[in-house]
Specification:
alpha+beta
Length: about 240
């Protein structure tokens, strides 16, 4: 019985000694994982993600608003098209014919003696740089009291009573006094203006109911006009 009790006491001592060595390691191993588990916890990572997202959001918002000034600059670009208005002003065509010196001439209506005083008109010819009659030009006439557009037109060469290139436009059935009310102008077959509008006076006189107006070519440095021939048909 004493031997068994001795063995029992020895075993108990051994176990006590062994337990003292083991438990410290157990407590150390249990204590160490706690801070390690705390450091490896998922709490810091969300804070980092939250900070990175807050830092990235402002530049993206700036990038989205930056196209607005570019759209404003593109809308300003079409404004230079206003310069197109300057290009509309074109030079006026230089007249080719002008009034012959000494015209207008006031005569009685010798082409229609049967009409007598019941006639008022403008007639004449157009001469080129060499003094020859020009055929097939349009002679327009008008009355500013009726309107600015032409009311009468004829063609040179159709009224041979005034010469080979004669024209004639009757503007009234009776003579009347007027001051630059009627006008006459030369055009080509395409309607291009070859002279300025020439305004003339009229008189309530049967001896002056024919207004003779001739046009001559405008001289320049490269061409010289010859004297205009005197027409035998004029009284």
């Amino acid at each position: 019985m004493k031997r068994e009790n001795l063995l029992t006491i020895l075993c108990a001592l051994w176990l006590m000694l062994a337990g003292c060595e083991v438990f410290p390691y157990v407590t150390e191993t249990e204590v160490q994982p706690l801070p390690s588990s705390t450091t490896t916890s998922s709490q810091p990572s969300p804070t980092q993600v939250t900070m990175t997202t807050t830092l990235e959001v402002p530049p993206t918002a700036t990038l989205e608003t930056s196209p607005e000034p570019t759209s404003t600059t593109t809308s300003i670009l079409p404004t230079p098209t206003k310069t197109i208005k300057v290009e509309v002003d074109l030079p006026i065509q230089t007249p080719t014919y002008k009034l012959q010196d000494g015209n207008p001439i006031y005569l009685p209506n010798f082409a229609y003696p049967e009409s007598g005083c019941e006639w008022l008109g403008v007639a004449g010819q157009v001469f080129d740089a060499q003094g020859f009659e020009v055929q097939d030009l349009i002679i327009a006439a008008g009355d500013i009291q009726i309107g600015d557009e032409q009311q009468w037109s004829t063609q040179t060469g159709l009224a041979q009573s005034y010469g080979p290139g004669g024209y004639e436009n009757q503007i009234s059935e009776i003579p009347q006094d007027s001051k630059e009310r009627f006008w006459v102008q030369v055009l080509d077959q395409d309607g291009n203006l070859l002279s300025e509008r020439l305004f003339f006076d009229t008189f309530d006189d049967c001896a002056q109911n024919l207004i003779l107006i001739n046009f001559v070519f405008i001289e320049n440095s490269s061409a010289k006009t010859m004297p205009t021939p005197t027409l035998a048909g004029y009284p």
